[in-house]
Amino acid sequence: MGFKKIVFSAVLCCVFSVAALAQTTELGINAGAAGYIGDINPSNLFKPSGVAFGAYVKRNLDPYWAIGIHYNYGKIKGYDANSDDASLRTRNLNFSTSLNELSVQVDFNFLEYFSGGGIKNFTPYMFAGIGGVLFNPKAKYNGETFELRYYETEGKKYKNYAFSIPYGVGMKYRIGERLGLFTQLGYRTAKTDYLDDVGDKYPAVPVISDPSRQNPNGVNLSDPSGKNFPCGVQRGNFVKNDTYFFVHIGLSYTFTSDKCYSF
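User: That's the sequence. What structure does it adopt?
Assistant: Structure tokens below.
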């Protein structure tokens, strides 16, 4: 084999090796807890209230940047009765909902790292993206569960899906040639105020006489406190978007190829 052919083959080997390194695919799974900040929990920024888990597929563009498709599931809930605020305890609302989120996220590693390569065995990182979330708030009263969206508790309809904006920080650790461990805390701004079915005012109609806001047993789902708050009185707070978060620990596996064409 001539010298030029050897050099040419070596160059091809390096090119394809770099291409493989720059286009590694990563799969991950994670589990942890979910929480929420909104009208029923207005001030506690980190209060997990249910389980969470998820999975993703990610393309590592280089040791610093990656882009991926993420699915996350979580359970969130809130109870006025457990609040430190006397006015919220008087209001006496409660809710719970499952969250099903699909998003596209971009990662930035602060150090030269990924589980299939890079010179560092760990790195802090941050991420941001855009996605959508499905939700369906429910409430329990007198031992029964009600899907609140169908009762128009504030005199308006809302959809059971919304855009979301994920953002957060985490830490990645290499624990094997292709295996990684990561921890992550990520918040989501949801483009809705109704993850908890609370966002505006008591409806501008007499809620006691409006059968659409009562269940067959006569529970007034708009005002279950029994205080008969006047119509038009503020029911929720003035923040227009609810927030939810996931705190995760997970494992990743990176598919890489360091094979060159033989010569």
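The CA atoms of residues 126 and 169 lie 4 Å apart.
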